[in-house]
Protein: Histone-binding protein RBBP4-like N-terminal domain-containing protein
Amino acid sequence: MGRKIKRKAGVKKQAKRIAPSSSSSNPAVASGPAKCFVLGFGIGWSCLSFDVVHDQLGLVRSEFPHTLYGVAGTQADKASRNYIGIFKLSNISGKKREPIPSSAIDGDSDTDVDSESSSDGEDEETNEDTKPILHLKKVAHAGCVNRIRSMTQKPHICATWGATGHVQVWDLSSILNSLAESATPAPKEDDVIHRQTPVKVFSGHKAEGYAVDWSPLVTGSLFLVCDCNKSIHLWEPTPSNWNVDVNLFVGHSASVEDLQWSPTEADVFASCSADGTISIWDIRTGKEPCISIKAHKADVNVISWNRLASRMIASGCDDGSFSVRDLRFIQEDSLVAHFEYHKKAITSIEWSPHEASSLAVTSEDHQLTIWDLSLERDAEEEAEFRAKMKEQANAPEDLPPQLLFVHQGQRDLKELHWHPQIPSMIISTAIDGFNVLMPSSIDTTIPSSTDTTVASSEP
Structure:
């Protein structure tokens, strides 16, 4: 799969209404019957990868205004111009306002923030007090950033996978602290690119890669890195650093595209590959996979392990399809759902951290979709809604009942993340910047993981 940015569940429910959305900076479809808050911003260069940084503002919060912290890695036109962007987006009020004109994506240090809420109501008056505030600081990074991840237990510790073939770990505590203490951005602060030495650099890979993952269960933390040369390295924490195991995990016959630790088993992880397989590994039993299955007919680009229903794993394919499997039946018929809605490669997939049946997907077809896999078909409601949709948007006739929300308007979408502490908030990155979405049609009820049933679906 080409990763570079190109330049120049509970009791089964009846199907809810799908809510199409468009980015405020580039409307693509008419607004649907449900409201959606959309906020757009940029940090200069386009970003292939970012991560939400866990904060201390509350484990679960739903009241506006919101504040979020994040880290992102750039894809600049020259290797020497790249950086890690550490940002705080505050005063997210959720109120409709006129967008601030966005700057071109040309590597300038100017940042932009704009937002829109699709609503049947009247526009709210624009004023300075309701505008979101973007604080941005930059740390120089050698080469483009293919993937960046913040450690859950120590959010100031971040790892980057660089296009140079180096994996680096950074301590960003001083920068995050300064963002937390600052109410307003200092003049021209985002013009400055700080020089900082990483706390760990590993150059043992023979090719670049696109996936890293910190263990959610091991303080320290266990760390996995994979590359396009079929290699998977394990980093084990020491009191002051990490030891990188030189003995590779071997089992895939092509590039390892993504990997993820189990949310419940500290020694277990999953990986996916361009060979079309998903493998499950146990680091206690050796360097070969415990189980490998043929999951897709083409490259498996991304996977996501459900943190609320750990038996479920989702995978996205280069042919635009994505699937959900039940790991309890992995050696039998484990396929729970398979969708072929998207027309181009799946670039990101992630289960909601607050609703075990909800899944978000991005694709190279410039769409971000949200799915509720607990929904089942209701012919009468579906026919009524399809008729209304035809009046408001040119929706296809064969929409799956599990498709809850469609967001269009971003170009060349690359990665998405649900905010782990703000239910229903999704952040996505694309060639034309970031969007923050909060669809009102997404159920923010936080269920028990034992109360969720995923409804099966045919292609």
The first strand starts at residue 13 and ends at 14.
